[in-house]
Specification:
The chain has two domains: about 120 residues, ATPase, nucleotide binding domain (Nucleotidyltransferase, domain 5), CATH 3.30.420.40; about 110 residues, ATPase, nucleotide binding domain (Nucleotidyltransferase, domain 5), CATH 3.30.420. It is built from eight helices and 14 strands. The chain has about 250 residues and is α/β, with parallel strands linked by helices. It is globular. Strand 2 and strand 3 form a beta hairpin. The strands form four sheets. Strands 3-2-1-4-7 form a five-stranded mixed β-sheet, with helices on both faces. It has a five-stranded mixed β-sheet with strand order 10-9-8-13-14, covered by helices on one side. Bound molecules: beta-D-glucopyranose. The site of beta-D-glucopyranose has 14 residues, from helix 3.
């Protein structure tokens, strides 16, 4: 198995890529990115992925592709903040066709969770971990004993008659101009609900907002431990490569 794999993380506004040392769980060199094309159809996104891969020749073998969708049996079943033409698409087959390399296609929050559980804030935690990524939506990843239960989609848990992510995401904080205490009050309600259902030992809070953990961390409340993500903006890229490595070269 090669140690240097390419990780790619597709988001609604940018597509990030990097070469990951999968044995050490870290990025080798820089994280590079390109704007997500509009419309963000498979035909538009795949050439961007090819261009990013071309700029990272140090990576070999299998590619990990993290995507904001439920991925079942290799196919996207939903599409959050990307064109709905992705629904039904086999991301690994598209990469294979484009770059002639094997690939693994997985949910973006599951990828971020893998990075944190193997090498970040969840390392060494044998119990139940829930990672939440706060961004445009809320992504989630559920682990127990280091094993991922894929496609958990806790951002769509109903809270106050709506999807939790429509009430407590980082995007909603900006939209509604909520200050830290007002936003964290919502996050605390959400964590309480999740805790009542899953009794995690540890919540890991990720997404770009986790870089501001010092500002809001002291306001958080939960019977579970709460830690900020360590990989922040790189988590999807690192985790996608780790998932590809774990799937076999
Ligand atoms: C999607 C998830 C995704 C999350 C973060 C949610 O809206 O349903 O699949 O992981 O956003 O991108």
């Amino acid at each position: 198995m090669t140690d240097k794999l390419l990780g790619i993380d597709v988001g609604g506004s940018s597509i990030k890529a990097g070469v990951v040392d999968v044995a050490a769980g870290k990025l080798l060199g820089e994280l590079i990115s390109a704007p997500t094309p509009r419309p963000s159809t498979p035909e538009a996104i795949m050439p961007v992925i090819a261009a990013l891969a071309d700029r990272l020749p140090a990576a070999q073998g299998r590619i990990g592709l993290a995507f904001p969708a439920v991925v079942k049996h290799g196919r996207a079943r939903t599409a959050a903040n990307v064109d709905h033409a992705w629904i039904g698409a086999d991301g690994a087959a598209l990469v294979r066709r484009l770059l002639n390399r094997p690939a693994l296609f997985l949910n973006d929050a599951d990828a971020a969770g893998l990075a944190e559980v193997r090498f970040g804030a969840g390392r060494g935690e044998a119990g139940t971990i829930i990672l939440l990524t706060f961004g445009t939506g809320i992504g989630s990843a559920l682990f127990t004993g280091g094993h991922l239960l894929p496609n958990s989609e806790f951002g769509h848990m109903e809270l106050n008659g709506m999807d939790a992510e429509k009430w407590a995401s980082a995007h909603v904080k900006t939209l509604e101009n909520l200050d830290w205490p007002a936003w964290i009050e919502r996050v605390n309600v959400y964590l309480e609900r999740l805790h009542a259902l899953f009794w995690p030992d540890l919540f890991i809070l990720g997404g770009a907002i986790s870089e501001r953990f010092a500002d809001f961390g002291p306001l958080l409340r939960s019977p579970a431990r709460i830690a900020p993500a360590q990989f922040t903006g790189q988590a999807g890229v690192v985790g996608a490569a780790l998932a590809a490595a774990e799937a076999g070269a």
